[in-house]
Design goal:
There is one protein chain. With about 1100 residues, this protein is an alpha/beta fold. Helix content is about 40%, strand content about 15%. The protein has a seven-stranded parallel sheet with strand order 1-10-2-9-8-3-4, with helices on both faces. Helix 16 runs antiparallel to helix 17.
Length: about 1100
């Protein structure tokens, strides 16, 4: 591969960029995106950057945006002669052009910053969904179907139904148990495209494959019937759309949408994803695939490294990153030596890399063994050890060594210089949650703060097991289940108490559980957890007090509470009784992580981090400890084991069982691929270290020979290729000792003996022993702090008549709606001979307003010419039909609503839009439902709405249509409110409108208020009538707050933002008063139903500062 040069020619075809761990992959992606955009190859809305997780996509979007801003600033400063640093190679290249071209590049970069939200920087699943929507009618999809992340319950129903249908009425025993049936089904569904092998079986073995195939078919049928689909279905639909008769046309459409495609973490792709990318983009547009096959460790999630190697073979350009920016030179040397000449799979070699950090950033006292960048702690007695004995010894050794490091006075050099080594700088990487728990318990017992995130899932905890045990006992209170529940933390008994309990004590426990069962049945999980915390063991400490008295009790209590929230959410959604038990049991089995189920604890960031290797991928730590690098149990083949492996370049799934013909050969292929995956996992583990990595190796009876570290140590390092699957410890070379391997010492890895250690504890710093006491609340509750909105601010006066009205005319009650109903005395009578409102016959109220808003939010309204109006009308009918089905309003039919709404879309908006109607604004120039939330002041702020009123009064000229509103806002019910907390809201639409000095951005809010009695006519919506309604409902406050939110949004997103140039005012569209395309301005030059207001830009900017705590204190 060619070393990647960020200043070289941009890839024009399909290119692979192989990035070894720590070599700056994200930096390279951001640099590539910046060059493609700055050099005019692609516009931001035609750029796609794809990754494989939401977190990674969010980071990429942030890094690309920051890189664009940085490059634009560097180029600008260089032209102005104020650049105070040397530009990096990418910026230097962009500056190496005539001044006119550099100016053009700055303009492109600034436009890209503003338009980056339109770029497709997203996960592969989000990308596929966007492409399906782009294809429209060309796609193989059901537009009404719903994406569902978890189909576990549906799969269980399918398995149970098929099992009964196939075997309940047959003579003799079923061919396998229902538990085996569930396992076969899960394996088949998790790899839906993998052919089931072997073929040609008979009898019970054939039935295993037939049952799995039947589950796939029946699950597909039921998903179609229920209108749901999974992420795998989403990918398959896009692939099938590109394979079908309209596939070529669809691919052409997608290429027009995405002119440059960058794919991050490509080693985690699967064959379907690669087929979609290859069929659509390869050979047609620049397609850059960035990844590292050495870090392909997610086969259990469907990733297939063969897809990566296929792409490499097909790519016309192949590049590599070979300079490590994460690890110090010493660690890089250890990793290079450990993997030298090793193959981690077909075509997956480990090229040596260099380090940009030439000195160690871990500062240690003289003579510290931690000064070695690599340490190998060896446990090698004459007699082979039992695995459990070796693990206990290694954990004790790890504990002692770690405490020694924390007490050594070690320092870490970071960007601000040297600082004390913290516990959170140390990571212990393990293979399973159970092993992680073993290490965590040992460290906790020694006084070391620990954060254990083994499966990054709350369902992998002791608390989840206790919840499952309790729910089972409450649902089916059999004797064994009840006894198990008594032993949970909820009741708090131990085995001794249970064994010695008399009938009276046991009856009391059973009664406690019965009471909890009634609470769960009647009030749900939240009430159950409240009862558990209140009850516990009668007369004893409650759950919280018992947990907090033991090591890691804070973590355990947090887990119990977190699970209560999740279970309550499921219960509220209708998953109850035995279904809730089954759901939790499946989650515990899978220990699957989702965004809302990652374990939470604030103090985790001050503790030693214990996690699985898979969790650690993408992270880095100054010190990494690997106690299991030479610990691997490889089980024998079993009848019910499923084997996923590759045959003829395609992944297949063997469900035939261990006695099926040819199984030995298939199992050998499977074992070979598993061994390769474990080598890659070790590569990921050791490359998390920045300054020091320590590994443990032990001679055990059954867990050393096939372990990845042992295989790397005793292979022929001078010969390229894969290590043997195992090196037995009773024959050369596996019978050797690492101290006899000279290449380890040459690489800077110190080989040490690991001997049994006595228990040690982390010493507390002098004077820090806490005194246990009840915490007292001695702070004041800020009763003025709140999270509010326009509606919340005006709640008390929404129905108060304006000051000009007599007191007796004021309405008697207020409403909280955004569109408050007017009292009959406020409504105007119908002018004689007026033009009927298109919505005269439609009802009012909040429900109708929500319906109209939903239609306008989701409608593709672009129809710039009169000839386009029939198409708009058809789309509007579809939209009103869909919205009416979701938000039905009595007496409102979809056709009638569409007919009534059409005039509002084609009515000219006057000075708001340069005379264009809504239908004249392209979809790309409109942002619907811009939700915002920002802080109002600080804890000491005393700014009030009265201050806002004073500011409005100072800025609004006498001829402003809302010049009288500040007096209304200063009313004591409003003006005395202190603005402290958070302000939230959602702007109906922001329109980007072309102007002589560039684009203007207009706030638009839709209103369905009735402004007249009797037969509603357009003349009810004249300028004076709308001004009166604006003041009555305090819409000017809403409008100016929306302008502030837009101002802050543009200030953060729009390069070169100037409020005077870019703020385009606010438009309140009273849709009942909008007469259509032929609407003519009145004598005052305004159009009925269209209220425009242009508050001074200086007012908006000063109000933003005032709300940000520059007001009265």
């Amino acid at each position: 591969m060619i070393p990647f040069d960020p200043t070289g020619p941009l890839p024009q075809g399909t290119a692979v960029l192989e990035a070894s761990a720590g070599t700056g992959k994200t930096y390279a992606i951001a640099a590539l995106a910046t060059r493609y955009l700055a050099e005019g190859v692609v516009a931001a809305d035609r750029l796609a950057v794809i990754s494989f997780s939401r977190i990674a996509s969010a980071e990429l979007r942030s890094r690309v945006r920051e890189r664009l801003r940085s490059s634009a600033a560097t180029l600008t400063a260089s032209l102005a002669g104020t650049l105070d640093h040397a530009p990096d190679p990418t910026d230097a290249l962009l500056l190496d052009a005539p001044a006119d071209e550099v100016h053009a590049r700055i303009r492109r970069l600034n436009r890209a910053v503003s338009a980056l939200d339109a770029a497709s920087i997203m996960t592969i699943h989000q990308f596929c969904q966007a492409m399906l929507e782009e294809l429209g009618v060309l796609a193989e999809q059901d537009p009404q179907a719903t994406l569902v992340e978890d189909l576990t319950l549906l799969l269980e129903q399918v398995v149970d139904d098929l099992y009964l249908a196939r075997y309940a009425q047959t003579d003799g025993e079923p061919p396998f148990s229902v538990d085996v049936a569930r396992k076969l089904a899960r394996e088949a569904v998790e790899l839906p495209d993998a052919p089931l092998v072997p073929s040609g079986l008979g009898g019970r073995r054939a039935e295993r494959l037939a049952f799995a195939a039947a589950v796939r078919e029946e699950l597909a049928v039921r998903k179609r019937r229920l209108g749901v689909y999974s992420f795998d279905d989403q990918l398959a639909r896009l692939r099938d759309s590109l394979r079908g008769p309209t596939g070529q046309a669809g691919a052409e459409r997608l290429r027009r949408r995405c002119r440059v495609v960058l794919v991050d973490e490509f080693q985690d792709t699967d064959p379907v994803q690669w087929e979609v990318l290859r069929a659509t983009f390869s050979g047609h547009v620049p397609l850059v695939l960035i990844g590292d096959p050495k870090q392909s460790i997610y086969a259990f999630r469907g990733a297939d490294v063969v897809a990566y190697t296929d792409a490499v073979a097909e790519a016309g350009e192949k590049y590599s990153l070979a300079r490590n920016h994460r690890a110090d030179a010493g660690v890089v040397g250890v990793v290079n030596a450990l993997f030298a000449n090793a193959s981690l799979g077909p075509g997956i070699d480990v090229p040596a890399v260099t380090a940009s950090h030439t000195e160690s950033r871990l500062l240690l006292p003289p003579g510290s063994p931690w000064a070695a960048p690599g340490r190998l702690r060896c446990l090698a007695p004459e007699q082979l050890l039992r695995a459990d004995d070796a693990r206990d010894t290694i954990v004790a050794d790890l504990t002692a060594e770690l405490i020694g490091l924390l007490e050594s006075g070690a320092q870490v050099v970071d960007t601000d210089g040297p600082r004390e080594l913290r516990a959170s700088d140390i990571a212990i990487l393990v293979s399973t949650n159970r092993r992680g728990r073993h290490v965590a318990d040992a460290l906790t017992g020694a006084g070391v703060p620990v954060a254990f995130a083994g499966a990054d899932s709350i369902f992998a905890t002791h608390a989840a097991e206790d919840w499952l045990t309790l729910l089972r006992a409450l649902e089916q209170p059999r004797r064994t289940a009840v006894r198990a529940a008594i032993l949970t933390d909820f009741v708090g008994a131990d085995l001794t108490m249970l064994a010695s309990a008399d009938d009276q004590r046991f009856t009391a426990w059973a009664g406690l559980l019965q009471g909890w069962s009634r609470v769960l049945a009647g009030h749900g999980v939240a009430a159950l957890f409240a009862a558990v915390q209140a009850d516990g063991r009668s007369g004893e400490r409650g759950l919280a007090e018992r947990l907090l008295r033991r090591p890691r009790g804070e973590r355990d209590l947090t887990d119990y509470r977190h699970l209560a929230e999740i279970l309550h959410s499921q219960h509220t959604a209708g998953v109850r009784g035995q279904a809730l038990v089954a759901w939790l049991a499946e989650e515990v089995r899978r220990a699957a992580s989702t965004s809302d189920r990652v374990r939470r604890l604030e103090t985790d960031r001050f503790a030693v981090q214990i996690m699985t290797v898979h969790k650690a991928k993408g992270l880095q730590f100054p010190v990494v400890l690997l106690p299991e690098a030479a610990d691997l149990w490889v089980p024998d083949d079993t009848e019910d084991q499923a084997l996923a492996f590759h045959s003829d370049g395609r992944r297949v799934l063997d469900l035939g069982g261990s006695t099926a013909p040819g199984r030995e050969e298939r199992h050998a292929r499977y074992a070979e691929e598993q061994a390769e995956d474990r080598l890659r996992s070790l590569y990921v583990a050791v490359t998390r270290a920045q300054s020091q990595v320590t590994l443990w190796w032990a001679r055990t009876m059954a867990t050393t020979a096939a372990s990845p570290l042992h295989r790397l140590l005793f292979r022929r390092t001078d010969r390229p290729g894969a290590p043997e699957p195992a090196y037995p410890l009773d024959t050369p070379p596996g019978d050797g000792h690492p101290r006899d391997l000279p290449w380890l010492a040459a690489a800077g890895c110190r080989v040490e003996e690991c001997v049994p250690r006595s228990a040690v504890r982390l010493a507390r710093p002098a004077g820090t022993v806490p005194v246990l006491a009840l915490a007292g609340f001695d702070r004041e509750v800020d009763s003025l702090w709140r999270r509010t909105s326009y509606s919340g601010l005006t709640e008390a006066v929404h129905a108060r008549a304006p000051l000009a009205a007599a007191p007796e005319e004021a309405p008697e009650a207020a409403t909280l709606a955004d569109e408050p109903e007017a009292d009959a005395d406020v409504l105007a009578a119908s002018p004689a001979g007026g033009s009927p409102s298109p919505m005269a016959e439609l009802p009012g109220g909040t429900a109708f307003g929500s319906l109209v808003h939903h239609v306008l939010e989701n409608l593709d309204w672009y129809a710039p010419a009169a000839a386009d109006e029939p198409g708009l009308a058809a789309r509007l009918r579809e939209a009103t039909a869909a919205a009416s089905a979701r938000f039905p309003v009595a007496g409102v039919g979809a056709d009638a609503l569409a007919t009534a709404m059409l005039p509002s879309l084609v009515t000219p908006l006057g000075s708001l839009s340069g005379g264009l109607p809504l239908a004249g604004i392209p979809t790309a120039d409109r942002l619907s439902e811009l939700t915002f939330e920002f802080a109002l002041g600080t804890a000491a702020s005393r700014t009030t709405l009265g201050d806002v009123a004073s500011l409005l009064g100072r800025w609004l000229p006498a001829d402003d249509p809302l010049a009288g509103y500040p007096e209304e806002l200063a009313h004591p019910l409003l003006g005395e409110q202190v603005l402290r907390g958070f302000l939230t809201g959602s702007i109906d639409s922001v329109l980007r409108v072309a102007g002589p000095d560039g684009p203007r951005f207009v706030v638009v809010d839709y209103k369905t208020n009735r402004l007249g009695m009797g037969d509603l006519v357009l003349e009810h919506y004249t300028r004076p009538a709308m001004v009166e309604e604006m003041v009555r409902t305090h819409y000017p406050l809403q409008a100016i707050l929306y302008c502030v939110a837009l101002h802050r949004f543009l200030r953060a997103r729009l390069a070169g933002y100037e409020p005077e140039r870019h703020l385009g005012g606010a438009g309140y569209l009273f849709v009942r008063g909008m007469g259509g395309r032929d609407a003519q301005p009145g004598a005052d030059g305004t159009i009925t139903g269209v209220f425009d207001w242009f508050p001074p830009a200086g007012l908006v900017a000063e109000l933003s500062d005032l709300l940000a705590d520059r007001g009265r204190r």
